[in-house]
C-alpha cells in the first residue's frame, strides 16, 4: 500500500526571498511617491519665491536707474508704487520700457524681456502696493461682445485722439496717439485700465469690463474688415478726404473745363 506524502508545513526556500524582495519594492515605491510629492510642493513654493526675487533683480538691473531703487521715482522716471502688474505688463511687453531713447513718449517696439520676466517684475511691483492686475482670459473673452456698442463707446471716448478707425493721430509737443491696429487684447485692456503716457485712465467705474470687451471686439473687427466706404486714404479723417477732393476732384473739373474751352468751334 502506497504511503501518502505528508505536508511538512515548511515553505519553499525561495518564498522568503521573494517576499523580502516584494516588500522592498513596495517600500521603495511608497518612499519615492512621498518624496516626489514633497519635492513638488517645495519646488512650487520655491518657484513662487524665486519669481518675486527674480523680478526684483531684473528691476534693479534695468529699471531702478530711472524709477528708483525702491520704485519711488526719480527726476528721470515716475514712481511705480501702486501702478500694479497691469502697467508693468503693458509697458514692458509692448517694448516701451526700458526706453530706447529720451523723447516725448515711449515708442512701441520689440520687447526686451520674455513674458515670464515681465510677469516676475509685475509681481515684484504688485507686492509693494495694490494696483490693477493683468486681465484674466475670462475678462478678455469677446465671444459674446457687442461690436456695435464697442464702436459707439470708442467714438465717444477714444476717437478724438486715436481716430474713428483707430489709425492714431498727432497730439501736442511731439506726442501722438498710437495706431490701434493688430494690438493684443490684453494690452488694449491694460491701456484703458492704467492710462499710459498721455492717455487718461478708464477704470471700471468709467468703462465697465464688459464695455472694455466691446471696445476690444470693435478694434479687432476693424482689423479683419476693410473700409466699407472704399479707399480709406490712410484713415486720416475728413481733412485728408477733403484735401483729396480739392486737389484731385476740383482739379480734375478745372482741367476738363480748360480742355473743353480750348477746343476750336
UniProtKB/TrEMBL annotation:
<keyword id="KW-0408">Iron</keyword>
<keyword id="KW-0479">Metal-binding</keyword>
<dbReference type="InterPro" id="IPR009056">
    <property type="entry name" value="Cyt_c-like_dom"/>
</dbReference>
<feature type="binding site" description="covalent">
    <location>
        <position position="66"/>
    </location>
    <ligand>
        <name>heme c 1</name>
    </ligand>
</feature>
<feature type="binding site" description="covalent">
    <location>
        <position position="161"/>
    </location>
    <ligand>
        <name>heme c 2</name>
    </ligand>
</feature>
<comment type="subunit">
    <text>The cytochrome bc1 complex is composed of a cytochrome b (QcrB), the Rieske iron-sulfur protein (QcrA) and a diheme cytochrome c (QcrC) subunit.</text>
</comment>
<dbReference type="GO" id="GO:0008121">
    <property type="term" value="F:quinol-cytochrome-c reductase activity"/>
</dbReference>
<feature type="transmembrane region" description="Helical">
    <location>
        <begin position="243"/>
        <end position="262"/>
    </location>
</feature>
<dbReference type="GO" id="GO:0020037">
    <property type="term" value="F:heme binding"/>
</dbReference>
<keyword id="KW-0349">Heme</keyword>
<feature type="binding site" description="axial binding residue">
    <location>
        <position position="67"/>
    </location>
    <ligand>
        <name>heme c 1</name>
    </ligand>
</feature>
<dbReference type="Pfam" id="PF13442">
    <property type="entry name" value="Cytochrome_CBB3"/>
</dbReference>
<keyword id="KW-0679">Respiratory chain</keyword>
<feature type="binding site" description="covalent">
    <location>
        <position position="158"/>
    </location>
    <ligand>
        <name>heme c 2</name>
    </ligand>
</feature>
<feature type="binding site" description="axial binding residue">
    <location>
        <position position="162"/>
    </location>
    <ligand>
        <name>heme c 2</name>
    </ligand>
</feature>
<feature type="binding site" description="covalent">
    <location>
        <position position="63"/>
    </location>
    <ligand>
        <name>heme c 1</name>
    </ligand>
</feature>
<keyword id="KW-0472">Membrane</keyword>
<dbReference type="InterPro" id="IPR009152">
    <property type="entry name" value="bc1_cytC-su"/>
</dbReference>
<feature type="domain" description="Cytochrome c">
    <location>
        <begin position="145"/>
        <end position="223"/>
    </location>
</feature>
<dbReference type="GO" id="GO:0005506">
    <property type="term" value="F:iron ion binding"/>
</dbReference>
<dbReference type="InterPro" id="IPR036909">
    <property type="entry name" value="Cyt_c-like_dom_sf"/>
</dbReference>
<dbReference type="Pfam" id="PF00034">
    <property type="entry name" value="Cytochrom_C"/>
</dbReference>
<keyword id="KW-0249">Electron transport</keyword>
<dbReference type="GO" id="GO:0005886">
    <property type="term" value="C:plasma membrane"/>
</dbReference>
<keyword id="KW-0812">Transmembrane</keyword>
<keyword id="KW-1133">Transmembrane helix</keyword>
<keyword id="KW-0813">Transport</keyword>
<keyword id="KW-1003">Cell membrane</keyword>
<keyword id="KW-0677">Repeat</keyword>
<keyword id="KW-1278">Translocase</keyword>
<dbReference type="InterPro" id="IPR050597">
    <property type="entry name" value="Cytochrome_c_Oxidase_Subunit"/>
</dbReference>
<protein>
    <recommendedName>
        <fullName>Cytochrome bc1 complex cytochrome c subunit</fullName>
        <ecNumber>7.1.1.8</ecNumber>
    </recommendedName>
</protein>
<feature type="domain" description="Cytochrome c">
    <location>
        <begin position="50"/>
        <end position="129"/>
    </location>
</feature>
Amino acid at each position: 500500500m502506497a504511503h501518502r506524502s505528508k505536508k511538512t508545513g515548511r515553505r519553499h526556500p525561495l518564498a522568503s526571498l521573494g517576499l523580502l524582495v516584494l516588500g522592498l519594492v513596495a517600500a521603495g515605491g511608497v518612499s519615492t511617491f512621498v518624496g516626489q510629492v514633497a519635492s513638488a510642493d517645495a519646488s512650487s513654493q520655491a518657484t513662487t519665491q524665486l519669481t518675486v526675487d527674480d523680478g526684483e533683480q531684473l528691476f534693479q538691473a534695468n529699471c531702478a536707474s530711472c524709477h528708483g531703487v525702491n520704485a519711488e521715482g526719480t527726476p528721470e522716471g515716475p514712481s511705480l508704487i501702486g501702478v500694479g502688474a497691469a502697467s508693468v505688463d503693458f509697458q514692458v511687453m509692448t517694448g516701451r520700457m526700458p526706453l530706447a531713447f529720451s523723447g516725448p513718449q515711449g515708442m512701441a517696439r520689440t520687447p526686451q524681456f520674455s513674458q515670464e520676466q515681465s510677469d516676475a517684475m509685475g509681481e515684484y511691483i504688485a507686492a509693494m502696493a495694490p494696483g490693477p492686475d493683468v486681465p484674466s482670459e475670462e475678462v478678455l473673452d469677446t465671444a459674446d461682445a457687442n461690436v456695435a456698442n464697442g464702436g459707439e463707446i470708442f467714438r465717444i471716448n477714444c476717437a478724438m485722439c486715436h481716430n474713428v478707425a483707430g489709425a492714431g493721430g498727432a497730439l501736442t509737443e511731439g506726442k501722438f496717439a498710437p495706431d490701434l491696429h493688430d494690438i493684443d487684447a490684453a494690452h488694449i485692456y491694460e491701456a484703458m485700465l492704467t492710462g499710459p503716457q498721455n492717455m487718461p485712465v478708464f477704470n471700471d467705474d468709467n468703462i465697465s469690463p464688459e464695455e472694455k470687451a466691446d471696445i476690444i471686439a470693435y478694434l479687432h473687427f476693424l482689423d479683419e474688415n476693410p473700409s466699407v466706404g472704399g479707399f480709406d486714404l490712410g484713415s486720416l479723417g475728413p481733412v485728408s478726404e477733403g484735401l483729396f477732393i480739392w486737389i484731385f476732384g476740383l482739379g480734375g473739373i478745372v482741367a476738363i473745363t480748360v480742355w473743353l474751352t480750348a477746343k476750336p468751334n
